[in-house]
Design a protein that fits this description.
There is one protein chain. By secondary structure, the protein is α/β, with parallel strands linked by helices. The chain is 25% helix and 24% strand. The protein is built from nine helices and 13 strands. The strands form two sheets. The protein has a seven-stranded mixed sheet. Strands 8-9-10-11-12-13 form a six-stranded mixed sheet, with helices on one face. α8 (204-214) runs antiparallel to α9. The longest helix is centred in the C-terminal third of the chain and has 13 residues, at 233-245. It is globular and about 50 Å long.
């Protein structure tokens, strides 16, 4: 049974909703987001087959899925965009994705579907490396570059109305047992983030450049794709300070990680 989404923002015809209970079984837990303004709607990182049906059911409370305007894919991972064939088949959406990954998306769409919906490439809008702004309802949304965090072609979405930065994997946590949608004790939350960021973020140079860019935005919330969000200037500031100083990715590599293996694995 799909529960009610977390209402991140709702005012004057503009709304941001988070669905954080749709993944069942052994799949990676992830958050999906719906943004609405006036008569337009956008899904952020809708996921794969594990989330397609429950997410489709959940958003029907707010929009007619057939009239979905946009899907935003922060990068190319399966938990981000593997269900794109079903969304393209059953909605009229335009897909926003990095120019690096636009040419790979057809691998997820069978020729049978391509024949039914027309040329799939016409449904894809490739985002240039520097990012872009797009009109949305009565306002606009900003596609923020976040390359190498953790994908080589990676974007985040900033909503100037709600002042929310949808940060994808940046700020993600794994295994956090908090019952709330927001981090309330940053120090206690670090153990649920540190391993993920050290492995998946490219380097401290990149995280520092990203944090410097984000500090220029008027932000009230940073909402990752996995785990609770960061809300308010204190928690957001603590996160930006932490990620600016974190050694990660190539910073922590050693020669011992690159040795010819001697052990065996036994495939199941």
């Amino acid at each position: 049974m799909v529960g009610k989404p977390e209402v991140l923002y709702r005012k004057n015809g503009h709304a941001c909703l988070a669905f954080n209970d749709l993944v069942e079984g052994h799949g990676v837990q992830s958050n999906q987001f719906l943004i609405m303004d006036d008569n337009q709607s956008m899904l952020l990182d809708p996921g794969g087959d594990l989330t397609y049906i429950p997410l489709n059911m959940a958003i029907t409370r707010y929009i007619n899925p057939k009239h979905l305007d946009y899907i935003f894919a922060s990068h190319q991972d399966p938990d981000i965009i593997a269900s794109i064939d079903r969304w393209v088949m059953n909605t009229s959406c335009q897909v926003l994705v990095s120019k690096l990954w636009g040419r790979f998306l057809p691998h997820l769409v069978s020729s049978h579907i391509d024949k039914q919906v027309g040329d799939f490439n016409k449904r894809v809008t490739e985002i240039p490396d520097e990012g872009a702004r797009i009109p949305f309802g009565n306002n606009e949304l900003v596609l923020i570059p976040a390359h190498f965090l953790h994908s080589v072609g990676n974007f985040q979405l900033y909503d100037p109305i709600s002042k929310i930065l949808f940060s994808g994997d940046m700020g993600a946590s794994i295994g956090s047992q908090t019952d709330t949608a927001y981090v309330d004790d940053f120090a206690a939350h670090i153990p649920f983030m540190v391993g993920f960021h050290q492995r998946y973020m490219c380097s401290n140079r990149v995280t520092g450049l990203w944090a410097r860019m984000v500090r220029k935005l008027d932000i009230e919330m940073i909402v990752p794709q996995h785990g609770p969000a960061f809300k308010g200037p204190k928690i957001i500031g603590q996160f930006l300070d932490w990620i600016s100083d974190l050694e990660c990715g190539v910073d922590v590599l050693r020669q011992s990680y690159f040795e010819v293996p001697s052990g065996f694995i036994n495939p199941k």
